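Forgive a beginner's question, but would it be possible to get a protein, spelled out as residues, together with the matching structure tokens, please?
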Amino acid sequence: MVAVQNMTIKNLIFLCLFLISAAYAVDKESEDSPFQLSYQSISFAEWDDVLASYKNNILVVDMWATWCSSCLKRFPHMVELNHKYRDKSVKFISLLLEDPEEPEAIDKAKKFLINQKADFDHYFMNENIMHSFEKLDLLGIPTVFIYSKDGKLTDRLTGDNPNNQFSEKDIEDTINRLLSVK
């Protein structure tokens, strides 16, 4: 009986060690993941320089926040579009519009981006949220700005008009239209 109990204890110890090492391997795997979050805090004064840095590409800017459920729901499609158009001189970036006084929301946004494997550049407007909306001339989000290769804003896709909401198809149609322009 003692031999059976000793064997059971040894098996339990082995099982515990195995589970601990497996949990470590999962954590280690996520740490070693090739996905790296490209994230930068900026002021509105820096925004024009950010936009200019993408010149010679069609630029799709997704403006969003974690408190915007439709932004979160639509975001995976932006990731898909990024993958679809990445070899066609189309760049995607996101502009997070959270309250800079709420670091929990910013952390939540970073985790969301990592979970989405959103492998494009992300910016956080580090100014008062109301001032950011005013300076960007936004009434609400989600909003997508699309710039031509020469850096000109060609399309503002917004939800400002409740009778005319933009869709993922509108984003893709705009990209395809700009790609066909010579």
